[in-house]
C-alpha cells in the first residue's frame, strides 16, 4: 500500500507524541536514536528515508502499541515501511547477516542460518519434547556459566509470563511451550540495568533473539547465552482460549500441555488429548507473526525445536562457541539423526509466507 494508506491503516495520524512508545521499547532503551514516535512523525511530514537502518530495529514485541493511548499500530507500520524498503531495493537479509557475523561461527545455510552442528537429543529431564532447554539451563546455572535465566512461566491458566529465574526450581517450573509471545527482552533489560547482572541466559522466540542481539552490541561486557525456540507463529491467549473451548470443548487454562505437531494443535488434559487443525486458529495468531521470516531463531547461540526429530526428541542447532558450551554440559544425552530437510522445508515455508505478506503490505 502507499505510505499515506499505511498511515491511515495503522492510525499513525493519532500519535500524540506523548513518548509512551519509546519509553516502553526495549530496543529504544539502548539504541537511543531509535524511536517509533520519531519515525512516525517523519512519515507524516513526508521525510521518511526507506534506507534508514532504524526501520529494521523493531522486533515486533508490540509493547509500544499495547501501551499507546491512541492505539497506533506501530509494528504493522514498521513492517509496512520495510515492505516499501524492499521494493526500493533494500535487502532484508543484510541486517541478519551482519549480526550473524558478529555473534556466530559455523557453516552458512541460506534456509536455517549458521550451523556448527545439528542433532536430535533427549535428556533425562522431562520437558516439552526432549527436555533439552530445561537441562541446559539447570546445568548452566549449576556450573556457574550464568547467574540468572530469563524464562517463561505459566500464570493464570496457560497465560505466558516472562520471569527472571534465580534458581533451578524457577527453571523447572518454566518447562513446556506456551505458543504465546511474552516480553522476555524486557525482563533481560531489567536484569542488566536494575539487577546489575553480567552473566545471563535467555530463552526467546526468533523475534526476541533478534532484539537481544541488537541490544547486546551496546553491552559487550555482558555474557549472554541465547537459546532460540523454533517458531512458525504464536497466539493471543485471550483470543485462543475461547476458540479452543468452542472447537475442542476443553478449557485451555486447565491443560497439562499443548503442542503443535504436523499441522495439528494438540491439547493434553487429564490424561486425554484433543486436537484440531492449526489453520482453524488463525484468527488468534499475532499479526506480526505473518510478516516474520525466521523459523529457526537464526541469531541464537543454540536453537531448539521439535521439527525434524522423532517423538520425544528435540532438534538442536548449535551456532556458536557458547552454544557448544551449553550443549556440552549435557552428559546423559540420547542422540539420533535429524531430518534436516523437514526443518528446511518449514523454514522455507515460513519465509515464503512472510515475504508474500510483506509484498501484499507494500502493494
For this entry, give a set of tags.
Aspartate Aminotransferase, domain 2; eight-stranded mixed beta sheet; alpha+beta; 363 residues; three-stranded antiparallel beta sheet
Summarize the SSE layout with pairings.
Layout: H1 3-10, H2 20-23, H3 36-45, H4 63-66, H5 74-87, H6 93-103, E1 107-109, E2 113-115, E3 117-122, H7 132-143, E4 148-155, E5 159-165, H8 168-173, H9 184-193, E6 199-204, H10 206-216, E7 223-229, H11 237-248, E8 257-261, E9 264-269, E10 272-277, E11 302-305, E12 314-318, H12 321-327, E13 334-336, H13 340-362
Parallel strand pairs: 4-6, 6-7, 7-11
Antiparallel strand pairs: 1-2, 3-12, 3-13, 4-5, 8-9, 9-10, 11-12
Helix pairs in contact: 1-5, 5-13
General description of the model:
The protein is an alpha+beta fold. The protein folds into 2 domains: 3-90, Fumarate Reductase Iron-sulfur Protein, Chain B, domain 2 (Orthogonal Bundle); 98-234 and 286-361, Aspartate Aminotransferase, domain 2 (3-Layer(aba) Sandwich). It is built from 13 helices and 13 strands. It has an 8-stranded mixed sheet with strand order 5-4-6-7-11-12-3-13, with helices on both faces. It has a 3-stranded antiparallel sheet with strand order 8-9-10, with no helix packed on it. Strands 1-2 form a two-stranded antiparallel ribbon. α1 (3-10) runs antiparallel to α5. The longest helix has 23 residues, at 340-362. The protein is globular and about 60 Å long. The model has no long low-confidence stretch (mean pLDDT 91).
